[in-house]
Amino acid sequence: MEYEVPLHVDACLGGFLIAFMDQAGFPLKPFDFRLPSVTSISCDTHKYGFTPKGTSVILYRNSELRLHQFFAVADWPGGIYGSPTVAGSRSGYLIACCWATLMYYGIEGYVKETRKIIQVARDIADGWNKIDGVYLLHQPDVSVVAISSNKFNIYYLFDGLHAKGWHLIGLQNPPGIHIAVTQMHTQPGIVDKLLEDTRQCVEEILKSNTKKDTITVYV
């Protein structure tokens, strides 16, 4: 590190995908401790690790860096209080469920799920990219695919797909919508249904020529 500034990698969303993408046949550039400047990595196990919500991990390059995570209060009336996390105590139930899930899938299981999820994300990106009226905001490297439009208010498409049962996420600056592909989307027929519903909604929007303004709100 030229300036000796610690570099944290926030892999909370896709950490359990990017860690297995090379083995799944979708190589990525190094993002982890293979890079000498990376000092810590965070990853939510409850996302693509498929564990119950409420668990996450943070990794440090060495034990010396980890020492700075601990929090201690020496003058608390109840005695010296120390905790390895900001949140304090954690349920043993969540830790046990997290461990059991990791053991259930194992490396082979996570590689298998990663392969399916990444392939579906790319299939969706390819399909959306062929629909006249919308365009990709980016070429997805992992599981998130986002689109926008130069021909209509993209939030009309958001509403139209929501009415058809799709729960996508709205974006702003620039306006758009995105899908984070999960295990559920890898089931047979799901991609084709999403693409067909998108085509129908776009056609209806272009025909209606609606001009009403809308915004997106993250809840």
Automatic annotation (TrEMBL):
Keywords from the named record: Lyase, Pyridoxal phosphate
EC number assigned by the record: 4.1.2.27
Gene3D superfamilies in the record: Aspartate Aminotransferase, domain 1 (3.90.1150.10), Type I PLP-dependent aspartate aminotransferase-like (Major domain) (3.40.640.10)
Cofactor: pyridoxal 5'-phosphate
Example GO BP: sphingolipid catabolic process
Residues in coiled coil: none
Sequence positions bearing N6-(pyridoxal phosphate)lysine: 47
Domain of life: Eukaryota
GO cellular component: endoplasmic reticulum; membrane
Molecular-function annotations in GO: pyridoxal phosphate binding; sphinganine-1-phosphate aldolase activity
Database matches in InterPro entries: GrpII_AminoAcid_Decarb, PyrdxlP-dep_de-COase, PyrdxlP-dep_Trfase, PyrdxlP-dep_Trfase_major, PyrdxlP-dep_Trfase_small
Family membership noted in the UniProt record: Belongs to the group II decarboxylase family. Sphingosine-1-phosphate lyase subfamily.
Protein name listed in UniProt: sphinganine-1-phosphate aldolase
Organism: Rotaria socialis
Lineage of the organism: Eukaryota, Metazoa, Spiralia, Gnathifera, Rotifera
